[in-house]
Amino acid sequence: MKIKKLSDNVISKISAGEVINSPSDVIKELIENSIDANANEIVIQVRGKGLNFIKVKDNGEGISKEDLVNVAKKHYTSKLFSFEDIYNLKTFGFRGEALYSISSVSKLIIRSSIDGIEGYEAIFEAGKLVDFRNCHCQKGTIVLVKEIFFNVPIRRNFILSSRSEVKKIKRTILNYVLAFENITFKVEISNKKLIFEKASSREERIKNIFGDFQKKILRTSDFSVEFYIFDKIDENRIFVNKRPVFDSKISQILSKSNIKNYIVFIEVNPKDIDINVHPKKLEVKFSKNLNIYDEIKNFLKDNVQVKIKPKIVQISKIEQKPQPKFITTISKNKLLIIHRERALRKIYIQKLLNKQYKTQMLAFPYVFKFQISDENIKILKLYGFSVNLKEKEILIDGIPDIIENISYEDLEQIISIFLRREHFLKLENFINAIVENAIKYSNLTDEEIILRLFSLKNPNVDDLNRRIIYEIDLDEIEQKF
Ligand SMILES: Nc1ncnc2c1ncn2[C@@H]1O[C@H](COP(=O)(O)OP(=O)(O)OP(=O)(O)O)[C@@H](O)[C@H]1O
Ligand SMILES: [Mg+2]
Question: Which of 62, 164, 316, 427 could cross-link 114 (Cys pair, CB 3.0–4.6 Å)?
């Protein structure tokens, strides 16, 4: 067989595949770059499975004009100068490969400014700079990645048919939310918004997301390990110097010590770990001198697990603006004063009763320690909830789209209606609760409310026979002046 050198185009796609296999890999690299740039606010927007649209915006140091043309070139980095630096890394990045890999398999747009006055935009396609111009932008960097794998159709189709990509994206984001409590993360996945405000401690952030835990700390002169132990968690996580990693040895030790649900943070001097052992930096190697595995094993030997109050809260905060009680509009010769809440009630009740809703998936699923009957699950599904049953738990990862968004507590209240003994009025209470939350989380603008209200039959009163609209003749108002 004859040996030939591969073309550059093939080489770059193969090497990109080592770093970027999926949209969640893109998100990981972009978040890491923002953290390396010392951002304290990161906004992440993802549409669908991320194949067509990922945007990560930060308020970090920004990229200078001279550097911006080079960022997507292979081996261009500001983070590593000599090989030895790898053993003293304070940053996630060091290879100068992430943006190169991303740009080889997508359309990449980067806008950046180091001072908020002068900004530039660079557009890369399949690894080549195709456009460069001035732009107005705030201090920091916006990276937009479109049409991932447009030139690797097999990979693209694979992701398109994947059922777990959105889950992977959420898990990836959550890793950094958990490790960096001092950063505010604003996350939007397919129009669902979540805000993780800066927290004052790691404990606070973890508690906001996963509820109560038991904490144990192992400290030696060379390293420290914090164990956060839960009654139940979606996925176990191990961080080394805030880097999410896999470490089968540590996982095994924990499992043998009867710790099944955990987040572990290991802090160690960078000189004692090698990060350069996995193309996606998903594993690290500890220096033998640390004896870390034995130390952990011994520490956990006497570990008696305390029962932890079971509650998994998955979302910290949902944006909500205070709303006025009334909205006004003028129609013909009249001023109409509209009771906002009642108008919304009328709109949403109609939608619900006419079955004008679809299920929308939640950015992060909610888990409840309830058991409810099959009959009630049928009702939940009928009204647009997506329900999965686990042992002694129900997991809700979708709600009817008439409710724009929902907090854990509010959803808990809706579901717990089915736990009450009395059957009387159960369905009515349930429908009421859905409508109340639709109102609470409504994003409708005043104009939309007015338009929708007037498209309904009998807009003047709601289903409880309460007045929605009060009219005053403009002439009458005129006379008052
Ligand atoms: N959000 C950002 N803010 C500021 N500078 C950035 C940002 N993203 C990238 N850069 C600059 O672009 C360079 C290249 O980024 P890239 O992610 O490709 O490589 P890296 O982070 O240096 O190494 P790695 O491949 O290991 O991630 C970085 O070294 C950094 O100087
Ligand atoms: Mg990087």
Answer: 62
- Report the DSSP pairing between strands 386-390 and 393-400: antiparallel
pLDDT, tens digit, 9 for 90 and up, residues 137-184: 899 999 999 999 999 999 999 999 888 899 899 999 999 999 999 999
Long-range contacts, stretch 409-414, CB < 8 angstroms, 24+ apart: 410/437, 410/440, 411/366, 412/366, 412/368
Which residues, 6 or more positions from 225, have their beta carbon under 8 angstroms from its beta carbon? 217, 218, 264, 265, 266, 267, 292, 296, 299
Candidate from 26, 28, 34, 36 with most ligand 1 atoms within 8 A of CB, to mutate: 36
Does this model's pTM top 0.85?
no
- CA dist 85 and 82 (Å) reads 5
Element (H, E) at 77: none
Structural contact between residues 229 and 214, judged by C-beta atoms closer than 8 angstroms? yes
Kindly report the protein residue whose alpha carbon is nearest to atom 9 of ligand 1: 33
- Report the alpha-carbon distance of residue 139 to residue 142 in Å, rounded: 10
SS3 category, 187: strand
Sorted by where each starts, the structural domains of the chain and their CATH numbers stand as: 8-198 (3.30.565.10), 203-301 (3.30.230.10), 326-471 (no CATH)
Backbone φ, ψ for residue 344 (5° rounding):
-60, -40
* 3-class state of residue 367 by DSSP: strand
- Site residues for ligand 1, CB cut-off 6 Å: 29, 33-34, 36-37, 58, 60-63, 71, 76-79, 93-100, 141
Atom of ligand 1 nearest to the CA of 60: 3
User: What gap in Å lies between CA 64 and CA 60, rounded to an integer?
Assistant: 12
